[in-house]
Each structure stands twice: as C-alpha cells, then as structure tokens.
Design brief:
Elements lengths: L10 E5 L4 H11 L3 E6 L18 H6 L4 E5 L4 H12 L3 E4 L5 H4 L4 H7 L4 E6 L14 H7 L20 H24 L3 E6 H8 L1 H9 L11 E5 L4 E5 L3 H10 L14 H6 L1 H12 L4 H11 L2 E4 L3 H6 L1 H5 L3 E6 L3 E6 L24 H7 L4 H9 L3 E2 L2
Parallel strand pairs: 1-2, 1-4, 2-3, 4-5, 5-6
Antiparallel strand pairs: 3-12, 7-8, 8-9, 10-11
Helix pairs in contact: 1-7, 7-8
C-alpha cells in the first residue's frame, strides 16, 4: 500500500533531546517522515523526565512516537563520521544543542549544507543563536519566568506561578514543526534549503503576542476582557464560569437566584461590570458556596451559561464526551504497559491494533537496520560497536 501521508519519503536527522525538539520531530514522524533519532549511548536525557520505566518516561513515550533510534557517540571519531554521513543524506536536520556545539562535531548548518544545499536545518535553543543570553542554560520554567508568563499566572496571594507542565517546550515543538513544514513546502515549490533559528524564548513571546501588545497599549494594567469570568469555589470543589455576553450575565444571575442584579444599573453593561469587578465578584463568589460543583454544572448548563467543573486528568480520561469523540487512544506499549495517548488534530486516529506509529523506540533499537540501509555490513557494525562509536538496544 502506498503511504500517502504528506511527509512520506522525507528523511529526518533528529539530534534533539528533551521535549521541544522531540515534539517537532514526533509530529513529522506521525505525518509519515522517516525520523532517525540520533542519541548518545546512554540515551536522550528527555527519557529521564519523571518516573522512569526502563528506557522510557511518560514524556519520552509521547514525544518520540514513530521514530527510529540509533545510539552514536559523537565524541568518537568514527561515530562523528557516521553522524555526518547520516546528516548529509537527510532532507531535514533538527538539533537542540547549545549554539556552536553541532559545528564542533562537523554537523553545523554550514557543514551539512556544503554537500546537501537543499537541507532544512532547524536549531532549538533556549535564547537563540545570538544575543547576550545565547549561552545561558535554560529550562521551561526559566523561560516561563523570563517571558512574562508567570506575571499573568498568580496565586491568591499574588505570587507568580509556573504552569505545572513544560508548556513552553511543547509549544516550541509546535512552532518548530510548522516552520519545518512550511520550509519543506517552499522547497517543493521553488527549491532551496533553509536554516531556522527556533528558540524557547521566541516561541514563548509568539504565544503571548496579544498579551505583550496589550501590556504596552494599556500601560501595564490591561483591562479585563469581560466580567464575570473565573474559577469559583463551590461547597465541594471548583467550577469555571464565563459570562462573555450580556445574555450570559443575565442567565448567570438568574441561575444564582439573584435576578435583581441582572438589570442592576451598576452592572448592566460590560464596561460597568469591568469597572466594578472588585465589588461584583465577591457577591458572585459567595453565592457559589451554596451548592456542589455538580449541582452548579447542571444548573448553569441548563441556563446556557458556559461552565466546566475543574477536572483532574482522571476525570478527563473517564469523561463521556472524550470517549465519544475518541479523544484518547488506549494502547499497550511494549515497555511501559497500557497508556492513554491523545489523538492529535489533523492526524489519523491511533489504531490500537497497529502501533507502528504509536510506539516509541528504546535506545539504539534501530541502530543495525539504519546502518545497513546506509551500506554498512554486519562486520562494519560490529567494528563500530567495538570502538564504542555506536550501541544497539
């Protein structure tokens, strides 16, 4: 059967670790690309983000699906030469080392482009290839703080908080994928390769573009979009509500059994509610304490007020709607066991009976097959293993 996925036949040299780079190349693999994950002999450090299950953790299982792994020591001459050969044959090279490191291995953009001028080459770094911060070590939390994201995510005491996941890494992977896909489309139409500098800092800024502009235009204290909106404490938990338009507000007040506030001259327009948010919201919050989250969800939904109980991942996985639309695929992973994998918008849904695209490789799982495809004999492969240049699973 012909593989008609859009990136079928595209070869990717994936020298990324962590989450951002692996996310972008995982999306390429899911769209049909032959992604060769080039990792150190002891593996991508992203395999150790959280609890470890053999060669995997939850992050590596999700963000390395559909790839093939070859373990190469770039500090060994033969390993470095082998990596250079693989990169010279690739349509796309993606790396996530600090600026200048790939060039020291003879794998920088200029090195690869000499013999492969049409290559699409993307570098994932914290702060980018230039500027005074280019060499600073970075984590997702560092960029959350640096980019201003924490300033708009505060607890009840006003303390800036990090989002409890590697949100910047994940969104950087999305920006990286769209940049690569666009560069490939340009190459198909007009020819030519491209170098792409993709940093966590710039991705975080792009993600927050409207908030940054808003901060500037409104002098650092942006007007609320509308009131009431937010998370309400109930008698047994929390529920999020949004009253975006006038009829939403009227319906909310009626549902809260406070119809007198629906047309109160102090609150009967969006601008008035924004101006008097500090006096209106405590009244609304107090009313929500009278019932359970489940009771409010039923009442508000019936009244046409947008709402959602604040769920745990357990609630989400068990939700009737998520199940009805195949939001999650439950698969048996060879190394980890049964796991939920969210289906990605735009991709074919995961088939639990055909896990070729759902599985993520262990370290060096495909070392032998990849090298045979590039003309190496079994004797050559054993010789490289003996020199410590490569490893197999």
């Amino acid at each position: 059967m012909t593989d008609e996925r859009p990136l079928a036949g595209i070869k990717v040299f994936d020298a990324t670790q962590g989450v951002a780079g692996p996310h972008s190349t995982m999306l390429m693999a899911q769209h049909g690309a032959n992604v060769i994950k080039v990792e150190p002999l002891d593996g991508d450090w992203g395999r150790t983000l959280g609890k470890v299950y053999g060669d995997h953790c939850a992050h590596s299982v999700v963000f390395n699906r559909g790839k093939r792994s070859i373990a190469i020591d770039l500090k060994v001459d033969e390993g470095r030469a082998l990596a250079q050969q693989l990169a010279s044959d690739a349509d796309v090279v993606v790396e996530s080392f600090r600026p200048g490191v790939m060039s020291r291995f003879g794998l920088g953009y200029e090195d690869v482009a000499k013999g492969n001028p049409d290559v699409i080459y993307l570098s994932v770094t914290g702060f980018g290839q230039g500027g005074p911060n280019r060499d600073l070590p970075v984590t997702d939390a560092v960029i959350q703080a640096f980019s201003g994201l924490m300033s708009i995510n505060r607890d009840e005491q006003g303390n800036p908080q990090r989002i409890g996941m590697v949100a910047i890494d994940v969104m950087t992977g999305l920006y990286a994928y769209q940049a690569i896909a666009s560069a490939l489309l340009k190459r198909f139409r007009f020819g030519g390769g491209k170098y792409i500098d993709c940093s966590l800092m710039q991705s975080a800024a792009a993600f927050q573009g409207a908030k940054i502009a808003e901060f500037h235009l409104e002098g650092g204290a942006p007007q609320l979009l509308y009131v009431p909106v937010g998370t309400m404490r109930t008698s047994n938990g929390h529920i999020n509500i949004t009253a975006m338009r006038e009829h939403h507000y009227v319906s909310l007040m009626e549902a809260l059994e406070m119809p007198e506030l629906a047309h109160d001259e102090r609150y009967n327009t969006r601008d008035k509610r924004i101006e008097r948010e500090m006096e209106l919201m405590p009244i609304i919050r107090e009313a929500f304490l009278a019932r359970t989250t489940e009771q409010w969800a039923e009442i508000l939904t019936e009244a046409g007020v947008m709402n959602s109980p604040v769920s745990t991942y357990e609630n989400f996985m068990a939700n009737e709607h998520v199940s009805a639309v195949d939001g999650l695929a439950w698969v048996e992973h060879a190394d980890v066991g049964r796991i939920p994998l969210p289906n990605v918008p735009g991709l074919e849904k995961i088939d639990p009976d055909n896990l070729s695209q759902a599985e993520s490789p262990v370290i060096g799982q495909d070392t032998d097959s990849i090298l045979r495809e590039h003309g190496l004999s079994d004797t050559d492969i054993e010789g490289l293993i003996g020199k410590g240049a490569i490893a197999r699973a």
